[in-house]
Amino acid sequence: MVTDTVKADYCLEVNYRKESEKPSRVLKAVLDLIEAFQEIDNDLVKTIDVNIETVILLEDVDVQAGSIRVWLRNLIKLIPDDAAYNLDWKPIVGQNLVRAKKFMVNFLEKKTTISSAQEIVPLQNDIYSLAETTKIRWLPVYNKIQPKQLLDGLQRISAGLANLTEGDSASYVIPDEPRAEFNLTFSIAPESIEELLAKDTLSSENEMILKIKKPDYLGESMWDFRHGKGTISASMVDAEWLEKFQSRKVTVQPQNSIRAIVKIINKYDEDEELIATHYEILKVLEVIQALKTN
User: What is the value of pTM for the model shown?
Assistant: First the structure.
């Protein structure tokens, strides 16, 4: 049994069939769920204050025949101006995160997927109301979690649970409260999130110079380029040039660049917030050789 869970805020419990195959699936499920909840916490805490950051601390691990229990705690990492708050607010923020995650687990109880962005509006409102009930700010100004952040969080949970197989189960446990069972049948693909949220799509074509970071030799994945200080991934739509590259008729060396006609596709949600940007290389105009240095 766990010897000390006094400081723990919640527990992730995974039950598995003894003597079952692929035992690594259990550990991977636990790891993926912890990482998912860290990302979810980073989004949830912004409903209270965009300046707050939080990290998950491991308090204890209990391994028994047929089950693993991991006890975790939230720690406020970045502390904003205390003058904005009217009481000892840090434990309240921690409990808010614990309960908001339970809302998410319960929300998925009878769902196999999400077919419309409208389905998550009640959950979005519940999380906002939960932030309001903290009453820790002198000025009661709280934020709604963005639909994309919420859908991304639900997708991360489903990805963690996807490691488990028939006969396994998982629970979200808050001390002294009824446990919430994870729904292992729920699934949502990352690429479907954009389709759920996109209201407007705008595209443009521009001539750009892109420095090659990672070419695609197989023609089945994205090319990575550096543009300015950022990195973009783009699909190579110029089939004629791609065939020449893959057949070694065109040589591309490290640090080379391409001058190309690039299609930029921006997708926006109902609040006119940018949710995704995609790049397509329509036409490669030339390969620019990197300058040699002595």
Answer: 0.80
Q: Which of 36, 73, 41 is nearest to 57 (CA)?
A: 73
- 242 domain-assigned: yes
Residue 4 pLDDT level (bands cut at 50, 70, 90): very low
Entry field: residues in the chain: 294
Note whether 170 and 209 are same-domain residues.
Answer: no
Nearest to 58 by CA among 100, 15, 102, 5: 5
pLDDT digits (tens, 9 = 90+) for 192-204: 999 999 999 999 9
At 227, which CATH number? Answer: 2.40.50
Query: Do 269 and 179 share a structural domain?
Result: no
| CB-based contacts of 142, cutoff 8 Å, min separation 6 | 47, 48, 128, 131, 132
- Domain range holding 118? 10-194
